[in-house]
Amino acid sequence: MNIKAYLLEQKEKVDAQLNEIIKQDPPRLREQPWHQAMEYSLFSGGKRLRPILTLATAQAFSADTRVALPLGCVLELIHTYSLIHDDLPALDNDTIRRGNKTCHVVYGVPIATWAGFALLTKAYKTVWETARRYPTMKKQVWESSRIIFHNAGVDGMVGGQAADLYAEMKSMALEEVEYIHLNKTAALIEASILAGCNLYCDEPHTYKTFMSFGRDIGLAFQIIDDVLDLMSDTEVLGKNAQSDLEQGKATYPSVIGLENSKKKARHLIERSMDSLRSVDRPVEPLIAIAQYLYERKM
Ligand code: GRG
Fold first, then answer.
1. Nearest CA residue ID for atom 27, ligand 1
2. Ligand 1 near 49 CB (within 6 A)
């Protein structure tokens, strides 16, 4: 399949839905700097990986993506809040993201902080509105959102990010780095898959297969991010290169070396693709996304 064309097509759907979500706010609010900061980060060129995973997973079970699309946007709203907060001076202090100035560089720290919280609360509201709009799917929407917010919270992204901050400048064992990566990054990617799967799948075995797929590509994604941080330059990455090294971050290359990290990422991607091949559903887009993630340059 033509994965680039598929990703572009899905990204356009996600962008249109996010626009609709943002446009619900009245013009007097949209004029406020903190609202403009929200929009700045939400529409500054993200790949939309998480919502695309939700859509691709839902599409493996149903042609109807009306519920999966807003749920995917919930993940993108959370992801965008996490990037804004992650870039703040008190955290990673990054000045470039997706080739643009980071939110706090443009709008200042207080406004960027509010923009992050506004995105997070908009994510809750989007769940609530989706459940109300599709009453026959209400139960599934609540369960998908439970998975999303569980994996975005202390047992997932927030917990992983806290562990990542405490790990700075310390020498780490591989298990500790794996814990950080699985929580900081893989948890939200896994939730993106499960949010779509939960809507339609009632076979526990299949659900588990999707869960391992999400975890494997999520971990591989962060290992590849570590590798790219070392090997690419700022222009290609669209963010400050080698910032992990400067900040003494716990990364796979710092613990097992560059070549072993690449091998580990390759192994996880191959395993993820093999496990999904056993599912008797149209999962080609997900397999192609896994391959694409391994080959990505940014
Ligand atoms: C402060 C303890 C504490 C928690 C707050 C800030 C935060 C929660 C979590 C940060 C988690 C984080 C930023 C993980 C990195 C994940 C990652 C590799 C992001 C890049 O994802 P892409 O490449 O981004 O999908 P695009 O730009 O395409 O959207």
1. 46
2. yes
85 lines ligand 1 (CB under 6 A): yes
Residue that has been written with the tokens 């109300």 in this structure:
132
Any atom of ligand 1 within 6 Å of the Cβ of 222: yes
CA of 216 to the centre of ligand 1 (A): 17
Question: Is the beta carbon of 192 within 6 A of some atom in ligand 1?
Answer: no
Question: What gap in Å lies between CA 97 and CA 103, rounded to an integer?
Answer: 9
37 exposed, middle or buried (CB, 10 Å; 0-12, 13-18, 19+)? buried
* Ligand 1 midpoint to CA 61 (Å): 29
**Mutation test of ligand 1: which of 41, 86, 109 has the most ligand atoms closer than 8 Å to its C-beta?**
86
What one-character-per-residue DSSP string does 76-131 give?
A: HHHHHHHHHHHHSTTTT---EETTEE-HHHHH-HHHHHHHHHHHHHHHHHHHHHHH
What's this model's pTM, rounded to 2 decimal places?
0.96
Residue 186 DSSP one-character state? I
List per-residue pLDDT tens for the chain, 298 residues long.
899 999 999 999 999 999 999 999 999 999 999 999 999 999 999 999 999 999 999 999 998 999 999 999 999 999 999 999 999 999 999 999 999 999 999 999 999 999 999 999 999 999 999 999 999 999 999 999 999 999 999 999 999 999 999 887 778 899 999 999 999 999 999 999 999 999 999 999 999 999 999 999 999 999 999 999 888 877 777 777 777 777 788 899 999 999 999 999 999 999 999 999 999 999 999 999 999 999 986 5
